[in-house]
Amino acid sequence: MAACAYPHLSVADPFIAEAKACETVVSFAIDPGFRQIQVEGDSLSIIKKLNSTRIADKSILSPIVKDMVTMKDSFEIINFSYVGRQGNEAAHELTRLAGQSVLPQYWFGTAPTVVEQAVQRDLVP
Q1: Collapsed DSSP state (helix, strand, coil) of residue 37
Q2: Is the pLDDT of residue 79 over 90?
Q3: Hey, how many other C-beta atoms are within 10 angstroms of the C-beta on 19?
Q4: What are the boundaries of the signal sequence (predicted)?
Q5: 69-76 contacts: CB < 8 A, separation 24 or more?
Q6: How far from the centroid of its chain's Cα atoms is residue 22's Cα?
Q7: Which of 6, 37, 58, 69 has its C-alpha lying 20 to 30 A from 110's C-alpha?
Q8: Prediction pTM value
């Protein structure tokens, strides 16, 4: 397990912020050599774009989507799945932590207590 909180300081659009968060997760997983990752998000439209086989994306997210499609080749298995806001509390805790810092924060094998508690709540059906 690994987690990161990366402040995207100049992103005003929440749609782009969500896409940048996915991009950060994928990029973050490459450096330590993860071969299989599961990326969960609560923006269905972004998850659909990442799972699409369409090459041409003319949305404002096009550069971010293209970057992530390129990074997909770094993994044996990479899955993008949609989870509703209720099942994505851990991500929101990481976002809150990122907002409290101007520097990226990384955790390997563990995460801040509030994030681990959120993960446990996310797992409850």
Answers
A1: strand
A2: yes
A3: 26
A4: none
A5: 71/26, 71/27, 71/30, 72/26, 74/30, 75/29, 75/30, 75/34, 75/35, 75/36, 75/37, 76/35, 76/36
A6: 3
A7: 69
A8: 0.77
**How many Å apart are CA 13 and CA 72, to the nearest integer?**
25
Q: Name residue 35's amino acid.
A: R
The whole-angstrom separation of Cα 36 and Cα 75 is 6
C-beta neighbour count of 24 within 10 angstroms: 16
Half-sphere exposure of 20 (CA within 13 A, CB side): 15
The predicted-structure confidence for 4-13, as pLDDT tens digits, reads as follows 777 777 777 8
